[in-house]
Structures are given as structure tokens and as C-alpha cells.
Amino acid sequence: MAAEDVQQRTGGTTSPAAPGRITSLDWVRGWLLVVSVAVNSLWAAPAWFGHAPWAGVHPVDLVFPVFATLSGCGLGFALRRRVAASPLVRRVLVLLVAGLLYNAVTSGRWDVGTWRLTGVLQLYAVVVVALSLGHLLTRTWRGWALLTACLAAAHTALLSAWGAGCPGGELTAGCNPSGAVDPALLGAAHVYGQGALGHDPEGVVAVAGALVSAAAGATVAHLLLRLRGAPGRGPPLLVLLVLALAAGLLGVGVLAGSLPPLLGGADVPAMKRLWTAPFALPVAAGVALALLAGHVLLDRPATGAVLRGASWPLVALGRNSLLVYFGSHVLTAVLGRADAADPAAPAPDERAGAALAGALGLGEHPQVVWTVALVVAWTALACVLHARRLYLRP
């Protein structure tokens, strides 16, 4: 953990008082983290709520893609002036090493021969590299909009062409590029489920989809920066252009889902497992609207003290997004594994929840009390760190 002045010297985000800081990004991240901590606290969830087994989108499928889109937006703000090589290399190495340790801690597997090499932090490391290189090409919202469209088209073309050669002419868990590419590059023992599930949701193919989300986030960031720095261009124009951008992202996502069959390829459905463009771009459109709402509420000189005070805990969460997002995952994994000691019990999540409820005496509604307690605890920690201007950054 480093003090904020160290952040600024090493290419991290600037302090709230620094010119150009856009509070709405942290505010939206804060809302996402409330949802993420609450989801992680669930001992058991219905099938419709958890990750979709293949095609389709369930509520939990939205959490990490929203985080990836916001990360792209944050990188757009941070890299708007320059890309520093030394901080970039350090950040990527820290993310890769931390990702391996995160996988080991959450899975309880410490055998290097079966360590999963892919994961959410590793995916984020690739996003950091790709967006840094992208900022060497363009620092305008139009340039990033073009990059987003090109990435979406390339990823969709790959999936559609591959699916056309599958039995039945469709992408399945048994026939998709991730199932072939990721084990070939990394070894079956080092990918999601050791290759048994036929795909890796944070593997090479999914990373290409995540780049669509991150590039869309960078597009939104540069549009906000452009409008914020332009004299005489007030909130009405900002609202109009961000709405137009959100509509464009949604429209390209719809085209990515509807055009491939018309061009002789396989259908590319909206799904998180392969992080398809018909999934990533509508999510990015929703993020753009959320950022617009936050921008109108919080990034104006006329924003009142009461509104700023009410948003402060959410902003504090957003400033320490990596700590809260991944810390809550680790805590849940460790607690669940520690309390799920009886191998004969049929439902591990429910078993762990019952053990925790009994140990903590949470009363008639233990899940509600446990969820609220975790959200409050992580928010309190973030507030203390934010007050001291301490932030966890790679």
C-alpha cells in the first residue's frame, strides 16, 4: 500500500484535489463494489443468479465485465498524457505474480505443476499492457471508438468462423476456440478446470473479448475528458454525446450478434464464457450511462456539500477498488473452505453458511445480517484508508 503522493510519481491515479480528477469513476466503482461484496457474501444462490453455464447472461456475469470496462475508463484517464514504461512494467509484473498467488489462495492448490496460469488479475495485466500500447496510437475518443469497433469485429469474426466449423454450426462448450487455443498455449493443467470444461473464461480468447470492454471504457473516458476540457461546452452537450456513444456501443453490440449468421458464419450469442462482443458492448453502454449520471451529479462546480458528503463512502470504495474487489473474494474463499470441513455434506456453500451463522449468532436472517456486515466492514476500511489517502495499487 502506498501513499497518494507515491501514486502520482509512479503513474497511478491522482488525488481528489488534483485538477482533472473525475469523481464519477470512483462513485460508479463504489456501487459496483457494494454489489460485488454482497454477491461474494452469498452462501448459496439460485441457478439463474450465478454464472451462466454457457450461452446467455445471468446477473453475476455482469460484475467483472463492468469492472473491466471501468478499468479501461480509469486507464484512459491515467494515460491521457503519457505512457511511462517503468511503472507499466512494474504494474504488469505485480499483477501477474499477485494473480498466481490469488489463484492458489482461493483454490487451496499450491502445486506449481497444476497452478492455473490464467485468472482475473492476469487478464487485467494484459488489459493494462494493451491499453497502454493503444495510447501510443491514439488519445482521442474517436480513435478509441474505432479501436473498440475493430476489436469487436475481429473477436466476433474469430468466434463466428470457428463456430461455423463445429458440429451443428454453433459454438458449444465442446467446440470453441478457447478449448483449443488456451490448453495448447498454456498446457491443460494450467487453465480453468484443467481444460476439462472446454473453455477458459479468463484465457486468451476471453481476454480478447475483455479488451473490447476495456477499449469501450477508454472511449468513454476520452469523451468525458474532451468535453470537460472544452470551453463553452456545457452539460447539455455532454449528456447528448455520451447518450449517443452509449447508443452506438449498444448498436455495434447488436450488429455483432446479428450479422455473422447473415454472412455465412455461426451465431455469436451474448455470453460471458467467451466474453463476446454482443455481451461486452451493451454492458459498456450501461457503464457509460452510469458514468454520465455520476458526472452530472458529482463533477460539476455546483455540486452541493450534502451530495458530496453522501457520495464520499462510495468514492472511498472506488479509490481502493482492487483491495475491496479481490480482498472480498479471498475472504469468502478462505472462510468457505475453512468451514466446509465435512465431505459428506451435500451442499458446501450452504454448509459453510450454516457454520458461520451458528458461530456468529446472526439470528433469524443470517444471510441478510452477514451480507450487510461485510458491506459495512469493507466500506469502513475503504473510508479509513481514503481519509489517510492510502490506496492499494499494483
UniProtKB/TrEMBL annotation:
<feature type="domain" description="Heparan-alpha-glucosaminide N-acetyltransferase catalytic">
    <location>
        <begin position="21"/>
        <end position="157"/>
    </location>
</feature>
<keyword id="KW-0472">Membrane</keyword>
<feature type="transmembrane region" description="Helical">
    <location>
        <begin position="62"/>
        <end position="79"/>
    </location>
</feature>
<feature type="transmembrane region" description="Helical">
    <location>
        <begin position="204"/>
        <end position="225"/>
    </location>
</feature>
<feature type="transmembrane region" description="Helical">
    <location>
        <begin position="117"/>
        <end position="137"/>
    </location>
</feature>
<feature type="transmembrane region" description="Helical">
    <location>
        <begin position="31"/>
        <end position="50"/>
    </location>
</feature>
<feature type="transmembrane region" description="Helical">
    <location>
        <begin position="237"/>
        <end position="259"/>
    </location>
</feature>
<feature type="transmembrane region" description="Helical">
    <location>
        <begin position="368"/>
        <end position="387"/>
    </location>
</feature>
<keyword id="KW-1133">Transmembrane helix</keyword>
<protein>
    <recommendedName>
        <fullName>Heparan-alpha-glucosaminide N-acetyltransferase catalytic domain-containing protein</fullName>
    </recommendedName>
</protein>
<feature type="transmembrane region" description="Helical">
    <location>
        <begin position="279"/>
        <end position="298"/>
    </location>
</feature>
<feature type="transmembrane region" description="Helical">
    <location>
        <begin position="310"/>
        <end position="328"/>
    </location>
</feature>
<feature type="transmembrane region" description="Helical">
    <location>
        <begin position="144"/>
        <end position="164"/>
    </location>
</feature>
<dbReference type="InterPro" id="IPR012429">
    <property type="entry name" value="HGSNAT_cat"/>
</dbReference>
<feature type="transmembrane region" description="Helical">
    <location>
        <begin position="88"/>
        <end position="105"/>
    </location>
</feature>
<dbReference type="Pfam" id="PF07786">
    <property type="entry name" value="HGSNAT_cat"/>
</dbReference>
<keyword id="KW-0812">Transmembrane</keyword>
